[in-house]
Structures are given as C-alpha cells and as structure tokens.
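Throughout our pipeline, every protein is held as a single compact record rather than as scattered files. Such a record has a labelled line for the sequence and another for the backbone structure tokens. The remainder of this section carries one protein's record, kept here as part of the documentation:
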Amino acid sequence: MSAVKLRKWDVVEHLKTDADMAAYLEACLEEDDPALIAAALGDIARAKGMSQVARDAGISREGLYKALSSDGNPEFATVLKVVKALGLKLHATV
C-alpha cells in the first residue's frame, strides 16, 4: 500500500480577494476570541504581503509578526493600525 502524502492546510491560499478577507475576519470576530482575531489579521496580512502591511501600518515586519503570533497580545492601537493597513474596517451592529 502506498503512503498518502498530505500537506499542511493554509488559509492564506484561500484568501484571494478583499471580499474573502473581509468575510474571514467577520467570521473570526463572531467567535469573540481575541487570539483568533489576531491570528486572522496575521493570516490576512500574510495574504496581502506582510512587509507591505507592516510599512503601511508603521510597524516593523518583525514587530507585526510578533504581535499577530499565537503568543502575541497586540495593543488595540496596533490592531486598528493593521486593520487600516489591510484596507478593512471594523464595525458594530445591533
């Protein structure tokens, strides 16, 4: 019997359009998990190009990776800078 080769699934491969990215972030926001939201922002930043997002946000690339890592705990100001750099908006509904 031959061995099955698997590769790690990466959401970034599926974030092709701005609409995909917005829908992904919206779904993560509904989970009310700050770590998940930070990870989603990191995924979207990787899909758009981490270096460019870091420049647009005024944050070093290394700082951005650290803030949006699983161990990171970004300040809300950082989250807002990243969201703006990604061309996304946070919104509230009732």
Observations:
- The mean pLDDT is 93.
- The radius of gyration is 14 Å.
- DSSP finds five helices and no strands in the chain.
- Helices lie at 18-29, 34-48, 50-57, 61-67, 76-85.
